[in-house]
């Protein structure tokens, strides 16, 4: 389980860091100001605390190319009682710490990230960890189409269900890992195994307690004819996020949308980093595993 949560952290960080490197320089604002760009997410499920820091010109883009990565910053994460330092890992190219119980990330607690750099440059940010919301159940539905090569394209929808705690506005993101195997219909032998991660977007809710809620993510499989796809296991998580996480990922999605529209105004990425760019945000996950196979031709 520790390995699973480490992988989840890397996936979440990797997705946010990697996808903001591709914006054209032509789309950048005129008033380019060089500032530290910080990405850091924390969760009670973390076994590793991690932050990535680079110098980035405009707020519209987060660049983490090798030449811009900051390697000599002093990075601290603190609450009202404890402080832990994140050290730079030259192989991974980000700052990290393994707390091992010395620095727990707890729901309801506000954490402060402080990054100090040469030239008396210093940036800070705060994030409060939300309470987790349990998942009631998970469903997996599929629709099969046939393409011109007579292969099967199966579109899967993974849906998470929960009941709203109510009273306050809450922010969510889904996560799932679907393990499936492709079996030959004639021999019954396994042809290959695949692991997919459905695409979920962030969402928010506000309403009375006890109201059923749901969130859906999707992925697709292209398989040969005369085969059956068997779902072996589903791992799913409902991430309750803070507003920083929600606003950052919403602006990130809007940026990608505007890139595909030639005449659209560039979207400025949300940032809560005082003195810099980027985001320091928190989330709290509840997880469920289903081991019942589901077959679909």
TrEMBL record:
Pfam families the record matches: DUF4249
Entry-linked InterPro entries: DUF4249
Source organism, top-level taxon: Bacteria
Name of the protein in its database record: DUF4249 domain-containing protein
Species this protein is from: Larkinella knui
Organism classification: Bacteria, Pseudomonadati, Bacteroidota, Cytophagia, Cytophagales
